[in-house]
Amino acid sequence: QVQLVESGGGLVQPGGSLTLSCAASGSIFSIVSMGWYRQAPGKQRELVASVTSGHNTDYADSVKGRFTISRNRPENTVLLQMNSLEPEDTAVYYCNVRAYYSAHNWDEFWGQGTQVTVSS
């Protein structure tokens, strides 16, 4: 099994910044990708940003230029630096990891979620 521990959520004023962190541990053979999704009340969960093992990144159009995802390979952590936050960014943010837990078997793992609230 793979465990994910998230941190860094909270309350911030519009225009402010937050950094989310997610650390993966457990039976990790290799990581395929790490990323962040978010879900606002009454809305579907959506991809915010992801980074593959080859360092290819993908961002939602709504966060391009404001958010940056980065991965620390030795520590199996992923960071989401969020700048110029807007009220529309308010949501529960979930860490997502796709990883092989053996030589031939992979799965998708989710963190417990961390609340980000952007409000004055």
Description:
This protein is elongated. The strands form two sheets. Strands 2, 4, 5, 6, 9, 10 and 11 form a seven-stranded mixed sheet that branches. The chain is built from no helices and eleven strands. It has 120 residues and is mainly β.
Using brief descriptors, characterize the structure shown:
single chain; 120 residues; mainly beta; 7-stranded mixed sheet; 4-stranded antiparallel sheet; 58% strand; elongated
Main sheet attributes: strand count, strand direction, barrel closure? 7 strands, mixed
Total beta strand runs: 11
In helices, the fraction of residues equals: under 10%
What percentage of amino acids are in beta strands? over 45%
Low-confidence stretches: none
- The whole-number mean of residue pLDDT values reads 95
* Strand-pairing-aware structural class: mainly beta
| Estimated radius of gyration | 14 Å
Distance between the termini: 40 Å
- Number of helices in the DSSP assignment: 0
Q: What is the element string, with H for helices and E for strands?
A: EEEEEEEEEEE
What general form does the structure show?
elongated
Question: What topology does this entry show?
Answer:
Layout: E1 2-7, E2 10-12, E3 18-26, E4 30-39, E5 46-52, E6 57-59, E7 67-72, E8 77-82, E9 91-100, E10 106-110, E11 114-118
Parallel strand pairs: 2-11
Antiparallel strand pairs: 1-3, 3-8, 4-5, 4-9, 5-6, 7-8, 9-10, 9-11
